[in-house]
Amino acid sequence: MRFFQRYTARIRRLRPVFDGHLDAVVTVAVASSLAGLLAASLIASRDAVVLAIALSACSALVYVGYRLRPKVKLRRAARIGLRRGEFHVVYQPIVDTRTRHCVGVEALLRWGHPKFGAGGPGLFIGELEGTRLLSALTCFVLREANNALTQLPFPQHWHISINICARHLLEDRFVEDICESAGPMLERLVLELTERSCVERTPRVVTALSHMKQRGVRLSLDDFGTGFSNLDLLADFRFDYVKVDRRFLALRGEARIQFLKSVAALVHALGAKVVVEGVECAAEHDVVQRSGIDLAQGYWYGKPMAVDQLRAFASASASASINTLHDVTGTEHEA
Q1: 183 shares its domain with 291
Q2: Domain boundary at 68, 97, 123, which?
Q3: Are 328 and 311 in contact (CB under 8 A)?
Q4: N or C terminus of the chain: which is more exposed, having fewer CB within 10 Å?
């Protein structure tokens, strides 16, 4: 019994390695022979980490191990991947729908992991939600974007949008993290926040966003209409942009134009601009333009691209409208 208590305590001490969340299946096997122990360990050690193999006082072989749940394995792989340089940043153009000129980019995180990163950020970001690691990845994106700014440099009128997670917004060091990681890019920065991030107007959230606004950082409400849809959020936090999800662009007939026109009128009345994401063809661009939408992004204007591709895109876009640049943007950079 003391043996099991001792190794159970060791398992508990592993929690900090996994960001405070250890979700595991613990396996204990007792066998009277080495062959029996080997069979037990082979069954239990698939995707497992062996903690101990010991000889008990009664000459029975004992195996103790644990098998990580899929979510924990992903988080552990992401932490290791960040140290190993497996993550990188790509940039997707944001255009003015009237002039069709690029006015900014959104910095997007990509992960080169063959299993967890292959499906794109939509698969791994959700699993990292609520962990400190997502805050570290946000800082990584900011530093990479700042480095890209010094390499290009971006045209003076371009802004750079970065997604912010709800947990990071609640942390004491949020403002310091953003300012230190963004560096000189701070004056171009747009922080994209979801409705869920802001729905609880705690003093910490209000103060943090106020400090950001005072430093010249602009705010964007992301995925408008897909969350809590509290319209007073727009006024309370003085958003500069409101981003409408592609699902509303996919509505059929005149319904989508009427919806987009209504959103545009509401947002404009509050002094902000509307961004639509997911524009994939000329017909959708026409709908966006007719609806009074200010800005848009999507594959029709340019796919997410690496820094080298962005350099060529920035050079070409200085003298041409977006509809002539499809050959420049190419396909999304693969890790």
Answers
A1: yes
A2: 68
A3: no
A4: N
Sign of CA dihedral 138, 141, 146, 149: negative
**What pTM was estimated for this model as a whole?**
0.77
DSSP element (H, E) containing 87: strand 87-96
CB-CB neighbours of 295 under 10 Å: 21
Structure tokens that stand for 96 in this block: 């003015």
Q: Are 321 and 100 in contact (CB under 8 A)?
A: yes
Alpha-carbon gap, residue 74 to 216, rounded angstroms:
36
d(CA 70, CA 47): 9
Beta strand 61-68 with 24-31 is antiparallel
Query: Hey, what are 156's tokens?
Result: 């003076």
pLDDT for the residue 296: 97
State the total domains in the chain: 2
> Considering the domain boundaries, does residue 84 fall inside one?
yes
Type of residue numbered 125: I
Same domain assignment for residues 43 and 85: no
